[in-house]
Amino acid sequence: MKLKIFRMSGLPVQPEALEQYKAEFTSGFDAAKAECGNDMLALQGKLQTLEDALVAKYSVVGEVELPKTGKAWRELLQAYSAPVMVAQSSQNTDEYVLVIVDTQMG
Question: What is this structure's pTM?
Fold first, then answer.
């Protein structure tokens, strides 16, 4: 059985994409901060544009096979380096999703 999986933080699901996302976000933030200085309103607009571009580029929803053994669950947890919770889909109550509980980027 396939389940959708996503990160609670809204960041990209796949670990390799997550690292690229972090690097692009950091460099984009630094460039926007240098350009806007203390103008927080301008900075907010630049960061929203950056976030929109990154969300369009990187997938925030993935699909995995439902683990059926303790070993398979351990491998899933190790692959995503965070706890995973099972939740009922808010869009379809007959569907379940896996949520990676990663509430921070670091």
Answer: 0.70
Q: How far apart are CA 79 and CA 95, in angstroms?
A: 23
The enclosing H or E element of 21 equals: helix 15-36
**Neighbouring-strand partners of residue 65:** 2
Q: What is the pLDDT of residues 6-24, one digit of tens each?
A: 998 888 988 889 889 999 9
Size of the chain, expressed as the number of residues it contains: 106
**SS3 category, 4:** strand
Question: What does the DSSP assignment read for 35-79?
Answer: HHTT-HHHHHHHHHHHHHHHHHHS-SEEEEEPP-SHHHHHHHHHH
